User: Which sequence fits this backbone?
């Protein structure tokens, strides 16, 4: 996690940001960030904190999940679409290399780390990628090449998001177990829905697009809960992505009301799911599935277009 020392909303690069109407209370933001950190640690995870040295002019660097995707000691770095965030790459690359990670990344195609890429399946055998809003589908082949290991390859599925509110996968998809996930189907196009529901062996690296600008990262509409189980908001994806997702995993849909509270943008630690306060129906769904919802008020970070998962980059599984 990266401290929100310089976090503020001073421009608008997603539908949730409105500097004039929703300025950030920076004292409250720091309190909420510390509350999230405590909740994650209480659930059993270990937090490494990155100090935002040099980030005085990078107010979104607090959203650490967007920095990279990690597999073992390999880190595939983000290439941010928005010019306001491009310089974050330098600082995250420096931090990851200092902590023993081998770094890769394309400068040709946009990619926004765990914001649009989530590991699912046994032993990270599948990588689900949200494309359309912030991540270019052409990044998939390079991701597969750079992140494979001698001991294990993996399959990649690209999902098109179609609702601008759910611009990252993390906002509309949340894996719960090996074969179960919560999702908001309307965040995906029909092809993405189709492909996500298919078995991976039947689906090569197919672009499953995000189509709602509210859900501009995969993390905003897709949350892996376990190896083949996830939460999602289907309408953030195009119809093909919706179909494929449901073939790939057990997908648990969430309502639009909870999706816009960033219910899919959750941190999962074992059976503990840490999500933004107010997504009560999703909390009941999680309990029914055997998970323990832990609500944290992250209202100040919603103003920037992110929630729990967006604030935490997963280093090890």
Assistant:
């Amino acid at each position: 996690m990266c401290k929100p020392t310089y976090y503020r909303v001073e421009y608008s690069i997603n539908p949730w940001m409105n500097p004039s109407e929703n300025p950030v209370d920076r004292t409250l933001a720091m309190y909420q960030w510390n509350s999230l950190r405590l909740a994650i640690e209480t659930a059993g995870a270990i937090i490494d904190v990155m100090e935002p040295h040099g980030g005085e002019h990078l107010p979104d660097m607090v959203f650490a999940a967007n920095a990279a995707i990690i597999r073992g000691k390999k880190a595939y770095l983000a290439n941010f679409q928005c010019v306001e965030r491009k310089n974050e790459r330098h600082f995250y690359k420096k931090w990851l290399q200092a902590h023993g990670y081998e770094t890769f990344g394309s400068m040709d195609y946009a990619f926004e780390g765990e914001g649009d890429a989530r590991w699912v399946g046994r032993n990270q055998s599948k990588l689900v990628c949200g494309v359309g809003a912030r991540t270019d589908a052409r990044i998939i082949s390079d991701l597969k090449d750079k992140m494979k290991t001698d001991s294990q390859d993996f399959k990649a599925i690209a999902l098109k998001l179609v609702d601008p509110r759910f611009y990252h996968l993390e906002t509309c998809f949340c894996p719960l177990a090996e074969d179960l996930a919560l999702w908001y189907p309307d965040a995906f196009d029909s092809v993405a829905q189709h492909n996500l529901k298919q078995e991976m062996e039947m689906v090569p690296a197919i672009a499953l697009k995000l189509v709602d600008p509210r859900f501009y990262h995969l993390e905003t509409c897709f949350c892996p809960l376990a190896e083949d189980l996830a939460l999602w908001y289907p309408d953030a994806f195009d119809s093909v992505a919706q179909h494929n997702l449901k073939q790939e995993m057990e997908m648990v849909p969430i309502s639009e009301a909870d999706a816009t509270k960033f219910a899919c943008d959750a941190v999962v630690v074992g059976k503990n799911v840490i999500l933004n306060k107010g997504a009560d129906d999703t909390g009941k769904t999680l309990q029914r599935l055997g998970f323990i919802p832990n609500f944290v008020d992250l209202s100040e970070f919603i103003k920037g277009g992110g929630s729990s998962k967006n604030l935490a980059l997963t280093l090890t599984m």
Notes: The chain has one domain: 26-304. The chain is about 20% helix and 25% strand.
